Amino acid sequence: MSNKVPQLRFNGYSDAWVQRNLSDLATFSKGKGYSKSDLVSDGFPAILYGRMYTNYESQIDDISDTFVADATDAVLSQTGDVIVPGSGETPEDIARASNVNVSGIVLGGDINIIRPDTEKMDSTFLALTISNGQQQTELIKRAQGKSVVHLHNSDLKKVNVVAPSKDEQSAISSLFTQLDNLIAANQRKLDLLKEQKKGYLQKMFPKNGAKVPELRFAGFADDWEERKLQEVLRERNNQQPQSMEYPLVSFTVENGVTPKTDRYEREQLVVGDKSSKKYKVTVLNDIVYNPANLKFGAISRNKYGNAVFSPIYITFLVNNDVTTPEFIEMFVTRNDFIKRALKYQQGTVYERQSVSPTDLLAMNVYLPGKSEQEKIGSFFQQLDETIALHQRKLDLLKEQKKGFLQKMFV
């Protein structure tokens, strides 16, 4: 198959894509420099190059997070301008582009502005093609520098763009704009759910020595009772080799008890047989934490099941007579609890400071009756499941977009 035709196309399009030099399709200019001191909380909306790597999709429809106080002599966007960072830390950082789909936005320094001839080139298509396929590879090669890499308009003028008819360009742009809108809407929904959870965690547990929380389920009025954490959790300290029933797993801040990665599998082959080495056992619903990384939030409930992992991790058995795993998980993973626990950190080097299980278990905690705990635990479990569902949906949409980007550009 000729490399001038993408793998995946809309019905009705069959002509080969045509290669043209970008200098025949557009005019070029630069933004004007601004410093941090020029930024204000409300003023003229602006795009600064440092935010281009993380903040913007292939099409920018509005700016609501960066403003400058004064737009005198500013370089302002025209609808359809395509912007490319002029510098960044890696060539991949700056081999990307966005279509500014709104006029009057202040464009900061170190931004290359490409103004395409709209009869020949769709702006969103141009932004997408610069950020993917052959054009991106070409730009990565042109980016120059060591600690900071640069791209100039003179580099952009030399880029060869491979594109279909204007109609097909617009059809491709429209698909990716819809996908980006869908991704953004799902991201907002996910962020909102996470914020709601944060709010509930603050209100459904007593604050600093209080005996009741701000928010409770109907029917519960008794004070929460003070107990030692050791009445609720007990250290599980048995060790055994990995096996089919007890596979070797990792424990991370992001995912808790989680399977080892493929990289680990390959390492195993190189290092050789470890079948007799003993690891620490953990089972479903244990509370697990990393003493050295508690400050980063490395504490969670084992939702994976029977496993073994490094003896550096601490695993606690939950006393089901006093509490429920779902409730105590929410209790110990809250920021308030972690902050209190960090007062017991020991060690002279910050990176190695850790909270021992003895100190953790000696902490005083306030707990409600078992039935209220069950209600709270179940509420947060449902909330977590909803968050996980939205996260999976978002990940799937991002994967779909990645797949389309690989197959729909030359």
Structure description:
The protein is an alpha+beta fold and 410 residues long. The chain is 33% helix and 20% strand. It has ten helices and 24 strands. It has helices spanning 91-94, 123-130, 133-142, 153-157, 166-203, 262-271, 325-333, 335-341, 357-361, 370-407; strands at 18-21, 26-30, 39-40, 44-47, 59-60, 67-68, 81-85, 87-88, 98-100, 106-107, 111-116, 149-150, 160-163, 225-228, 233-235, 239-241, 249-252, 256-259, 278-282, 287-289, 299-301, 307-309, 314-318, 364-367. The strands form eight sheets. It has a five-stranded mixed beta sheet with strand order 2-11-7-9-5. The chain is elongated. The model has no long low-confidence stretch (mean pLDDT 90).
Q: How are the secondary structure elements laid out?
A:
Elements: E1 18-21, E2 26-30, E3 39-40, E4 44-47, E5 59-60, E6 67-68, E7 81-85, E8 87-88, H1 91-94, E9 98-100, E10 106-107, E11 111-116, H2 123-130, H3 133-142, E12 149-150, H4 153-157, E13 160-163, H5 166-203, E14 225-228, E15 233-235, E16 239-241, E17 249-252, E18 256-259, H6 262-271, E19 278-282, E20 287-289, E21 299-301, E22 307-309, E23 314-318, H7 325-333, H8 335-341, H9 357-361, E24 364-367, H10 370-407
Parallel strand pairs: 4-10, 5-9
Antiparallel strand pairs: 1-13, 2-11, 3-6, 4-6, 7-9, 7-11, 8-12, 14-24, 15-23, 16-19, 17-18, 19-22, 20-21, 20-23
